[in-house]
Design brief:
With 256 residues, the protein is an alpha/beta fold. 45% of the residues lie in helices and 16% in strands. It folds into 2 domains: 197 residues, 2-enoyl-CoA Hydratase, Chain A, domain 1; 46 residues. It is built from 10 helices and 9 strands. The strands form 2 sheets. Strands 1-2-3-4-6-9 form a 6-stranded mixed sheet, sandwiched between helices. The two termini are 29 Å apart.
Length: 256
C-alpha cells in the first residue's frame, strides 16, 4: 500500500509512500489514507499518531499524471475532491488522538492540506510549503481552501493560491503553523521525543482536549453543550491516578 501504517505500544506511524513523485497523492492513496485513519480511530488503545512522508519529502501535492483521466469532466472532478480527497482529509481530522506531522522537503498542495489536519507540525530546515495550483489552471476546492485558510490565515493562503508562492519553513514557523524546526538529521529523533512525551500523558485527557479544541474551532459551537458534559471525568481512574501520583511524588501510571 502506498499509505502504510506501523503500530507499536499505543503509537502509530502513517507513511505516505510514492517516492518517485516526492510522495504525491494518487487517487488510491487518498482512499487508503481514509481507510488507515478510520481503522486507527477505532483503536481504543491508540495514544498518538505520526504522519510522515517516505524519504526526504512529506508530500509534493497530487499526482498530476492521473489528472487527464478525470479532471475535465465536472462529475468526476467533483467526486474526486468531495469523496476521495475530502474523505481522506476528514478521516485525519476526525482522529480522536493527537496527530503529529513530520515534515521534510516538499509540502505542497495536498501536502499542506494533510499537514493542516494534524495537531502539531515538526519540520526540517529544508521543508518548503506552497499550493502553486494556479500554474495548473485550477483553484483549490472549497472545503480544502477553508481548511488551509483556517490553519494558515486568509492572507497567507491567498499568497499561496494567488501568487503560487512557495514559502520557506521559517515563514511557517513564524506564523505558528510549524511548532519546531530542526535539521533534517534531527527530524525523526525530535518527532520521536515529542510523540513519546504525548504518549506518556493521560490518554483520555488527550482525547478530551482534542475533542474540545476541535469543537471550539467550529463556527457557532454551543459552548453550553460542551460545559454540560465537560466534567464527566471527575471520578475516572485516570483523574484519580494523576492527582494521587502528584501528591505522592511518583510517576503516574496511566492505563488506556
Amino acid at each position: 500500500m502506498p499509505v502504510f501504517c506501523e503500530q507499536s505500544a499505543g503509537l502509530a506511524t502513517v507513511t505516505l509512500s510514492n517516492p518517485a513523485r516526492f510522495n504525491a497523492m494518487t487517487r488510491s492513496m487518498w482512499r487508503e489514507l481514509a481507510q488507515v485513519f478510520h481503522s486507527l480511530s477505532a483503536d481504543t488503545a491508540l495514544r498518538a499518531v505520526v504522519l510522515r512522508g517516505d524519504g526526504e519529502h512529506f508530500c509534493a501535492g497530487g499526482d498530476i499524471s492521473e489528472y487527464p483521466a478525470f479532471r475535465f469532466q465536472e462529475p468526476s472532478l467533483r467526486a474526486f475532491h468531495e469523496d476521495e480527497v475530502w474523505g481522506g482529509l476528514s478521516a485525519v481530522l476526525a482522529c480522536p488522538v493527537p496527530v503529529m506531522a513530520q515534515i521534510d522537503g516538499n509540502c505542497m498542495g495536498a501536502g499542506v492540506e494533510i499537514a493542516s489536519c494534524c495537531d502539531i507540525r515538526v519540520a526540517s530546515t529544508r521543508a518548503q510549503f506552497g499550493a502553486p495550483i494556479a500554474k495548473l489552471g485550477f483553484p483549490m476546492a472549497p472545503r480544502e481552501a477553508q481548511l488551509v485558510a483556517s490553519r494558515l490565515g486568509a492572507s497567507v493562503a491567498a499568497e499561496m493560491l494567488l501568487e503560487a508562492a512557495v514559502l520557506p519553513v521559517s515563514r511557517l514557523h513564524g506564523l505558528g503553523f510549524v511548532s519546531t524546526v530542526v535539521s533534517p538529521d534531527e527530524l525523526a529523533a525530535a518527532v520521536g521525543t515529542r510523540i513519546a512525551r504525548i504518549a506518556a500523558m493521560a490518554p483520555q485527557a488527550a482525547r478530551a482536549n482534542k475533542a474540545t479544541l476541535r469543537a471550539l474551532s467550529t463556527p457557532g459551537v454551543d459552548i453550553e453543550a460542551l460545559v454540560a458534559c465537560a466534567y464527566d471525568y471527575a471520578d475516572s481512574p485516570e483523574h484519580r491516578e494523576g492527582i494521587d501520583a502528584f501528591l505522592n511524588k511518583r510517576t503516574p501510571r496511566f492505563a488506556q
